[in-house]
Description:
The chain has seven helices and no strands. It is mainly alpha-helical. Among the domains are: 3-55; 131-170. The termini are far apart.
Amino acid sequence: MSPTVQKNMSYGLPLLSLAIVAWMPACLQLSFFISSILSYFQVILMQNQSLRDFFGIYPMPTKPVPTTSQPRLKIAPTAQDIIHEMPTSRKIPIFKPVTDFAQGAKKILGDNVKTATDAMGQTGAKKIGNMKKREKEEAAKYEAARQKQIRAERDAAKAWAKSRKQNHQE
């Protein structure tokens, strides 16, 4: 911060806050005043080197240290740099550690582990082509009962709408 800005802020901000606080309750103004006085004495005490030594606080810097180091910002690589650094093979084994872990776990646990396809074949929905004759008959029976239930619900809804319409006309 430049010295001019610092000087303007040190005089301007108190005047601005005084203008804002002037219409507030007196206890708030008193609180701001006491807080400012205590902060002023705290700054004076913290600048005292013997007090800093007593409490084990690092000494205040005497003057700014000139920086001769390079800026901390790094220059981003261009797209050409990235393309030239890329490996020639695009096959990156992203899921290899996961599959290796799963295969290792299956080897350790043996037959107690079932893959997802094994589990789906036993408990999941089966394709109609793979169903036995009895299973196909049960599925057809269920579908017929379900269609009958859907027709009954649709007929009941139509009857209700028709009776409601007749009630409104009367």
